[in-house]
Amino acid sequence: MSDLLLRDVRPVAIDPDPRAGTEPVDVLIRDGVIDEVGPGLRAAARGVPEVDGGGRHVVPGLWDTHVHMVQWSLGQTRLDTSGTASPGDVLARVVDRLTWGFDSPTGVLVGWGHRTGRWLEQPTVAALDAVTGDVPVALISGDGHHGWLNSAALRLLGGPPVEGVVAESDWFPLYDRLQRLHGAHEESEYAVTRAIQAAHQLGVVGIVDLEFGRPWEQWRERTAEGFPSLRARTGVYPEGLEDAIAAGLRTGDPIRSTDGLVTMGPLKVITDGSLNTRTAWCCDPYADGHLLEQPSGAANYPVDELVSLLTRARGAGLDAALHAIGDAAVAAVLDAFAATGASGSVEHAQLIDPRDVRRWAALPQRVVASVQPAHLLDDRSVTERCWPDRTDRTFTLRSFLDAGIELSLGSDAPVSPLDPWLAMAAAVHRGPEDGESWHPEQEITPQEALAASVDGQRVRAGDRGDLALLEHDPLAEAGTSAERARRFRYTLVSATVLDGQVVHGG
């Protein structure tokens, strides 16, 4: 923690305040906490390092409340398979990369980004084998819920005998093994360093890291090795729950030897699948459900097992973060929260019955809607194909806020970029920059989007000394929702302060 005087800045008015942003003030940080905000603090801050804000605007440091940090970091170096329309498109990119060569200490060519939801032809192991030979190739879908592997990769990772992709509960263990191959750790940690630096450039000071394995240990090692600073709340999955409990880890507790920046987060449970793989659990069949083995998707956990997990976690002092994309999954996790009294979040809440919005709002404990608005940019066309009769019930941010449900925004990186400005833009304009908003009745205001991206912090005494200095006010009046979103998308962060230390710019 450090002391810092940030002089001559204009706090952005997240909350209604006619005085905010009119006259420059100073912000004095002591021991990593904002001590005072007001004009003329230089005398009180004698001997404290200074940053001249030059009349620029300042907001609390940004948070992304749903990140898979290692996966996001590695995604920047993996073969990009996004935007492909067929298996043939992907195979062409694989052939091109193999022709020119690839450099990976694991010896595996890994790709990321394809989405099969709109493909007319489905991928097969045989098709991938035909162009890859003995080189192990693992192509990960853009939602992270399946892998298209060739025979060499299936043998290497101990995968099941399949003709097509490996999905959901069969896939996740293979993903974990991929990260445990010789050389994978060094490759991923180098990538994490670069990803943290990129996050600082966007004004990001914290994430909720829902990486598989034991991420709290990873962050402890990163602190010891002098990685760039970042706040992180780390999750644990059901298979690691008993180990976390035995170690005495409780939500909110600091992880030792991390300078107080890393704390224990929630139990993460993936209760259903995803839209693109048609595995999200829905109350009604998909429009193309007649082509599926499970026309409405399916639950990954029966409700009684989910209740047992939440009961165990709550008794040990752990919150719960429950992945639920389909409306049946959202209903089930609300049942589990109601039955156990556990606190936490519903992650994604992509499709929801309006009656469940009201039921959610009536829960006595804190259960946050942790939503990733940028997903709607990718999922719109698939939604219109798979859920054409329920598009008005997807990404219902306005409904959540109007019902009094607390909202936090994230990315689910690498599913969408670790970029809160993109998430906020998609929340206020539900469409491409130059296109129409999709179900604009569910848009939220720029103030609401920013409030959902700063972890409850403000530029006020007593809050954390985490700040982002901006070249313009992202909440300044703009006409259309597209124009308001554009202000977010093109916000320039000139400095980022974390725990009273300048980690970007100056």
Helix content: 25-40%
Count of DSSP E strands?
21
Instruction: Characterize the overall form.
Output: globular
Radius of gyration: 23 Å
Number of separate helices: 16
Largest sheet: 8 strands, mixed
Q: Which residues form runs of ≥5 with pLDDT under 50?
A: none
Q: How much β-strand is present in the residues?
A: 15-25%
**Arithmetic mean of pLDDT:** 94
N-to-C span: 17 Å
Backbone structural class: alpha/beta
Description of the structure:
By secondary structure, the protein is α/β, with parallel strands linked by helices. Helix content is 31%, strand content 21%. It is built from 16 helices and 21 strands. The two termini are 17 Å apart.
Q: Which SSEs are present, and which pair or pack?
A:
Blueprint (H helix, E strand, L loop, with lengths): L3 E8 L13 E6 L2 E6 L11 E3 L4 E4 L1 E6 L1 H7 L3 E2 L6 H14 L8 E6 L10 H8 L4 E5 L4 E4 L1 H7 L8 E2 H11 L5 H18 L2 E6 L5 H10 L6 E6 L4 H6 L15 E9 L32 H13 L4 E5 L2 H14 L3 E5 L5 H8 L5 E5 L3 H12 L10 H6 L4 E3 L10 H9 L17 H6 L15 E4 L10 H9 L3 E6 L2 E5 L1
Parallel strand pairs: 1-4, 1-5, 6-12, 7-8, 8-9, 12-13, 13-14, 14-15, 15-16, 16-17, 17-18
Antiparallel strand pairs: 1-2, 2-3, 5-19, 9-10, 10-11, 19-20, 20-21
Helix pairs in contact: 1-6, 2-3, 9-10, 14-16
Descriptive terms for the model:
506 residues, alpha/beta, 8-stranded mixed sheet, 8-stranded parallel sheet, 16 helices, 31% helix, 21% strand, globular
